[in-house]
Amino acid sequence: MPYVTSTEMFQKAYAGKYAIGAFNVNNMEIIQGIADAAQELSAPLILQVSAGARKYARHTYLMKLIDAAVEDTGLPICVHLDHGEDFDVCRSCIDGGFTSVMIDGSKHSFEENIAVTKRVVEYAHDHGVAVEGELGKLAGIEDDVNVSAEDASYTRPEEVEEFVARTGVDSLAIAIGTSHGAYKFKPGTKPQLRFDILEQVGARLPGFPIVLHGASSVIPEYVETINAFGGKMPDAVGIPEDMLRQAAAMAVCKINIDSDLRLAMTAGVRKALAEAPAEFDPRKYLAPGRENIKALVAHKIKHVLGCEGKA
Ligand code: G3H
Ligand code: 13P
Ligand code: ZN
Questions:
Q1: How far away, in angstroms, is 231 Cα from ligand 1 center?
Q2: Which phi and psi (to 5°) does residue 48 adopt?
Q3: Residue 310 within a domain
Q4: Is the distance from CB of 122 to CB of 90 less than 8 angstroms?
Q5: CATH number for 183
Q6: Fewer CB within 10 A of the end CB, N or C, for the chain?
Q7: CB of 257 sitting under 6 A from ligand 2
């Protein structure tokens, strides 16, 4: 199975009322953990790469590792640029073999967002690559950009048809109350998402795939393990899994997960190092991190995304 774009994956996900997991990748252990889980459960997969990941691991290394995942698993895999901030980074990823890119124009005005998104769509579609746009602004941290809760803004449903028609995007990320990172809601408060906005967007764009960023659940088991073995994370609260399942049964076809992967990896590494303080072979503490990633992704596929057996 070669690389695929997200187009067919999303058509099937929309019709089947499930979602595809878009997992952020930064190194070999993360890619292997995700790919092994998806292969065992025969799940379609989006591996996404941020600008920070390209800076850390470098484009060529990541592409070769993802090539290996495609060859090894035989799965349909889409390679996606996460939060492309301008035309140039999108073009570089399209030229470098990605099958999907996100142009995140959410920090711009509506008209400027349309202009940059349309430019990326024209270049991407000429090269057979799909494009995700964004309307509305999530709170949280991406790379070095920190959007405070006050600066975050929900997507305005009355803008989505015009945005999609004028840009030609293939999918749209919307802001309904999720946020990036591990600290999404105040501890002790009840997490709330604006399903009414998702409902209205879905009604205005029938059959059109919607993307949910900031969708980690911040699984308590990993935070507890990190803190039990020397970590000092404050109370962290994520998106409840039943809300993600509800979104997946609606118009959401792509669910972005990064923070849960980071927590799973860190919990595995911290525990392994704490239990064997004399150990200095990286394979001995990275392997448990990779195992945690695999278990986490299997859990997401089976119990959150609903895409088991859909590859
Ligand atoms: O949305 C942001 C992702 O979690 C990527 O994070 O930019 O630190 O790689 P990063
Ligand atoms: P989390 O921080 O909730 O994992 O969100 C990741 C994301 O949206 C990547 O684009
Ligand atoms: Zn995101």
A1: 21
A2: -115, 150
A3: no
A4: no
A5: 3.20.20.70
A6: N
A7: yes
